[in-house]
Q: What sequence folds into this?
């Protein structure tokens, strides 16, 4: 029997009948079906007894359409689409990935979503997150506010590219002084049309978390491990992508995940207390200073690199270890010291984070750190460079210079913790051990 | 009885007698002794029956001195001292740490070292590694060559600050085209005079590894976990400091550790094959190009940051995800694209690594990656930005431009692997699980 990608077909194999949409990763030997449950299945052609065409691709699928009807008793969740791999298809000729799904198509791909929530799809953009600029954050924040202020929205999911998802999460965390509902950023490491995509599970776990907890605030939902057991809900200001390709690329940094959502049992395990009292109003301060930068230091660097930040209002230095950078011993290092001095004298707020990623800076231990403190460099404490960068840009746009210097080292949105616990390093495995 | 820091005393407490040197972390309530075995012990004053002074501080300690005699049957290991926390003392008035130990003093602190090897102490410098420049790498490399070429040296240990120890390890890895003996970089996260210092265990494990294997090449030896069970021997080109303060701050990136040294049993467990055939000669190519830089990209960055690298021969970009950076969508991003284009046209070799740290770049998946490849950007594959930076500096000083572009993506010293295995992500815990 002939069938095409996108057709809805019924297959009888091994005594069972399977109804689903033919996926683009089907080969000469195997048909891949997207089942109604949202799961994908690969069926070897040798095992197929019969195939029946139920609905041609492109034709309106009555069954799928039905699912979009508002179901009583289900919460309404707004999905804001910004693009990224989640909204991408594989081009099976070139093997390349491009952003092409429309919001409705995406939801249609994962019919199970419509069984656990009424989805309101909102299109914002269709871009990869590595191209986002501050204006995109502001656009997203305003769209979030609109939905959060609407009647009857239980929570918001933002479909987002993974490259800079942690920067966006930090930006929304600071810009929303108060938010009444959960805002969960969800990405995927494999495009949504692939059988192996992590997109449906990440979306479903985010919805289950919204449905089953009273959390409000900004978080990220991604796979906990490379298997499809559970997703983690990760804190918006203390999370980072630390692997280029794995589905468990996002880890909490110097912090615990907020929760684990078990994909099989649909249970939510909270690792942090969720504030029960919700704010009365959503308050958004969507301004970000653009004259801010990040500078990673390295051995043998030149002082000319610092000069590039002349006229900047803020700079986050990603130093080494506890917050050091080359400022002594060699002549060029001493020039770097003078350039930092000039920058600070010009009014630029210079913040020190660490390229170690994990752990806190502590500039009181070694003389280099103390020299930098004396110069006026402000420690980022246990913030990642990415969170410190976004916080600095947000503070500079909303507060006076003296206030900014003070607020940088103060915890505003969970971004600074007094103490990092032993199990907050490479958290996933430690959590597993704790629960073993 | 009166005693001072540095005195050798005998204490009788709980029916046992303890002989050792009074440590600076002793308090009014507790005496901390450095025992002959190298271990530290804290004895509550309530429990002390009697104290006897054996040798005053500053006076030549006959017992300790004896240990420095050449012992037959023990291998000779050269310890090259460059400084860092390992060579540091805590100033108990200010709580600050400074580099102050002389090589002989350091070995004296850990008498056990002299029971497992004859130590040849070589002073190179007394600096913190965050201040090191390429000239320091060359100085260290030449000192390594001198020892490696000497008769009867079984292996070399380099005492080194931890901040940039992975940069130095990469530099030595590339500069030594051949090395006949093991060269192990050892640091510590707590200064050597503190009871809680990780220095003695790291040094002893490095010595045991040299004594008990036929490994030759460059590696790092540091704690495996936060407990004092084992050290890992980590590959010189695939290791990074990923925590600011923990003793298990160093992790293999996209690779396995070379070995585990059990501190209790003194057994060495190899995770990688060690080439039995050793090179006949040590070959050092100690040149490094200085006009090379690292640039971390971030959302909303300005094109002016790229201009700072005008005239550079090489630049490693630490992009996002699989190797992306802002070059499209916004006007400023498009300007960045043009600046990269100019830089490449001027002859600069631009290499793309990922700020994710773990995983490989893959610039064929998304259009942004392909646009950068078309522009002439060279992927760093699964190298860290730090290793790619050192490799680029070394290649540019030793090869022609066209050769450099080719060699960057080729494996020369274990820095590029065809495939990253699932257990090469956050390795420590996975290793534990494997052995459980």
A:
């Amino acid at each position: 029997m002939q069938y095409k990608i996108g057709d809805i077909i019924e297959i009888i194999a091994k005594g069972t009948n399977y109804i689903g949409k033919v996926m683009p990763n089907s080969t000469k030997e195997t048909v891949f079906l997207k089942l109604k449950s949202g799961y994908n299945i690969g069926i070897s052609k040798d095992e197929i007894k019969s195939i029946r065409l139920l609905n041609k691709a492109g034709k309106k699928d009555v069954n799928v359409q039905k699912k979009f009807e508002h179901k009583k008793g289900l919460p309404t969740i707004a999905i804001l689409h910004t693009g990224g791999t989640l909204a991408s298809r594989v081009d099976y000729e070139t093997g390349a990935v491009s952003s092409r799904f429309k919001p409705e198509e995406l939801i249609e791909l994962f019919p199970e979503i419509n069984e656990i929530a009424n989805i309101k799809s909102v299109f914002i953009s269709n871009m990869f997150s590595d191209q986002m600029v501050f204006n995109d954050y502001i656009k997203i924040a305003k769209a979030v506010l609109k939905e959060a202020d609407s009647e009857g929205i239980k929570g918001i999911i933002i479909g987002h590219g993974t490259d800079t998802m942690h920067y966006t999460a930090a930006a929304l965390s600071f810009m929303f002084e108060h938010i009444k509902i959960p805002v969960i950023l969800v990405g995927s490491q494999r495009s949504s049309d692939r059988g192996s995509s992590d997109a449906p599970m990440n979306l479903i776990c985010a919805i289950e978390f919204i449905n089953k907890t009273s959390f409000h605030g900004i978080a990220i939902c991604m796979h906990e491990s490379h298997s499809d057991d559970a997703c983690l809900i990760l804190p918006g200001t203390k999370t980072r992508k630390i692997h280029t390709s794995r589905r468990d690329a996002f880890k909490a940094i110097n912090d615990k995940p907020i929760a684990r959502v078990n994909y099989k049992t649909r249970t939510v395990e909270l690792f942090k207390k969720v504030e029960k009292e919700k704010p009365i109003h959503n308050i958004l301060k969507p301004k970000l200073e653009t004259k801010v930068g990040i500078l990673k230091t390295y051995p043998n660097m030149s002082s000319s690199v610092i000069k590039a930040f002349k006229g900047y209002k803020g700079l986050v230095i990603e130093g080494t270890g506890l917050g050091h950078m080359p400022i002594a011993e060699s002549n060029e290092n001493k020039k770097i010291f003078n350039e930092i001095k000039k920058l600070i004298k010009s009014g630029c707020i210079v913040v020190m984070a660490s390229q170690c990623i994990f752990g806190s800076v502590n500039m009181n231990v070694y003389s280099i750190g103390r020299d930098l403190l004396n110069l006026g460099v402000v420690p980022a404490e246990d913030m990642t460079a990415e969170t410190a960068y976004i916080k600095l840009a947000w503070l500079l746009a909303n507060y006076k210079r003296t206030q900014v210097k003070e607020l940088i080292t103060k915890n505003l949105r969970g971004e600074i913790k007094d103490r990092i616990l032993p199990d907050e390093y490479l958290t996933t495995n430690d959590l597993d051990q704790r629960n073993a």
